[in-house]
Fold:
Amino acid sequence: RFGLKDYFALNLMPKLPGLYSEEALAYTDLKYTEPEYQAILLSHIHYDHVAHIGFVDESIPVLLGETTLRMLESWETTGRMGFGSHAYYTFRTGDVITIDDIEVEPIHVDHSTPASYGFVIYTSEGAIVYTGDLRMHGPKAEMTEDFIERAKEAEPIALICEGTRVMPEEKRTNMSEREVFEYCNRVIASAKKLVLTCFYPRDVDRMKTFHELAKRNKRKFVVSTKVAHLLETLVNDPGIEVPSPLRDENMLIYVREMNRYFEWEKEFINSSKAIDAEYVNKHQHKLILHLDFTNFTELIDIRPEPGSEFIHSMSEPFEEGDIEEEVKNNWLRYFNLRKHQAHASGHCSMEEIFWLVEEISPKLVFPVHTEYAEMFSGCDCKVVIPEKNKGYKC
Ligand SMILES: [Zn+2]
Ligand SMILES: [Zn+2]
Structure:
């Protein structure tokens, strides 16, 4: 609504002159001025890291991983997001990007979406390291190790460090991806009815886990046209191995009953893999259906047998009384579905973050992406809690 007007009113976005487009600023009190930024670096595809690119002046180029660009394009095609027609330049680990006088080195990290990066930024005053979002217990843990190694070598003056799981008490259960597989395998192996699951479509590791679970349990893994589009986009990506919903014998594509369909959906709707709610209803014990929260209304047409399994394979809400959680639970209760929780976090635990900070040993650490920045005092390093609209010198 009205570009950045509400974001500024609620202090959700910084008022930085020379960053935003004329259109985004039209209804705000910040006057449009010529761009003052040379580039935007994107660490990975997650909403909290890319969603506002659409507000940025389109003449400012955007730098991102090759796979991130592919996923971004699929997202733009199949969703309502618009990221703007910037010049997009892709990078990969090992590249050194020159932006004016500084050099930036992107280094892969393991996270809950592919093509996630941290950065080492070499300035005349010394190196600045940004972690992006990262984990050490995932299937590609060695990537995070590479990043830490490189960050250490840079002897940074500052480390901008994520702290999602830095908190007084972690109530949510966290598994490794392997443990998610084992747990879900037990649920599915003994299931006699439909198996439903809900997780972020861009969590490609989880996609692969459920594809494997389906195969192991002689069921078909059913995904939406949107997810099918994302997976087909990634099938040709040399760095990633994903199943093709159009060709893989263990997959089917769920087509919602609609009055009209989008152009991009047609190749899926017209494929031999397309199935509808009636098909799911008739083959409940043979399927694992990935169902996004926004598509829960499909349950009305699918009519799952009471006692069907529902595997919630994403993070649990931060606190009790979460509205989305309540709505989900109401659906599950109405259809009498049995709920299971199985998730591997995309983030390091607090202990791992503290270890990482001490290992990289920067002059200063700036906690970000956390609700408990002050808890970084628990690690052996000088901590600066960043404040809005304030510049820092190391
Ligand atoms: Zn993330
Ligand atoms: Zn994030």
Notes: The first helix runs from residue 5 to 9. Residues 287 and 362 are 50 Å apart (CA to CA). The pocket of zinc ion (ligand 1) is lined by residues 44, 46, 111, 133, 346 (CB under 6 Å).
